[in-house]
Amino acid sequence: IRLGFSALPGDKPGRRVFDVKLDGKTVLSKFDIVKEAGGPNRAVWKEFKLTLGQSVTLELVAPSAEPGQDQMPLINGLVVLRQ
Q: Closest Cα to residue 75, out of 38, 31, 15, 14?
């Protein structure tokens, strides 16, 4: 599974930080898109190998129950390849 992320223009490091879970397992903890991509409006891809059944569950988990608009988790791309 490949997950693509790109922070929005104006995003700052440390603002949009979240966990990413695949099938209930945290695969990215305190993921900061701006930090990982090297700046806002730049893309970063993360790849994970999983043993899949008939479905996969993707969760983007905000650090608080009511994040502000500039703190909400986001994802821009998803690729699932069977090997």
A: 31
Q: Which residues make Cβ contacts (< 8 Å) with residue 38, sequence separation at least 6?
A: none
Q: How far apart are the first and last CA of the chain?
A: 11
In DSSP terms, 18 is beta-bridged to 31
CA 16 to centroid of chain Cα atoms: 10
Strands 17-22 and 25-32: antiparallel
Residue 38 half-sphere exposure toward CB, CA atoms < 13 A: 4
Structure confidence by residue, pLDDT tens digits, 2-29 = 999 998 888 999 999 999 999 999 999 9
Q: Which two tokens stand for residue 77?
A: 């791309």
% of the chain residues with pLDDT over 90: 67
